[in-house]
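Researcher: Sequence recovery benchmark, item below. Answer with residues only.
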């Protein structure tokens, strides 16, 4: 792969306002400031503001002559975040059962300590 310069970035931004267009502008300005003119993906969580941000970036980047795959894969949702949402929903479903088990354990523990076991 001679002549191909591939870089990975993990970038954190402090954004003053979580309005989608402002987030998009911050990312756009950073890309331009760093001279990054080719972007394959941006990985974000499932917040609705991110959908609009990616749409904004898609719209401005389609005029960049160097975009990759016409930005078809620009928006990648974070798999860890999706799994976390699924697990949290699952835990909500079984929370009643967990509370009942915890109460039963406390009850048995209190019996054991009151009887000197």
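Model:
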């Amino acid at each position: 792969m001679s002549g191909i310069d591939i870089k990975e970035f993990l970038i954190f931004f402090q954004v003053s306002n979580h309005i989608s267009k402002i987030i998009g502008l911050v990312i756009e300005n950073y890309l331009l400031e760093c001279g990054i003119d080719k972007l394959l993906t941006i990985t974000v969580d499932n917040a609705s503001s991110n959908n609009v941000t990616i749409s904004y970036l898609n719209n401005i980047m389609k005029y960049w002559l160097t975009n990759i795959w016409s930005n078809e894969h620009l928006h990648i949702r974070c798999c860890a975040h999706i799994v976390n949402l699924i697990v949290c929903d699952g835990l909500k479903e079984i929370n009643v059962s967990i509370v009942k088990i915890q109460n039963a354990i406390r009850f048995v523990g209190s019996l054991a300590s009151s009887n000197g076991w």
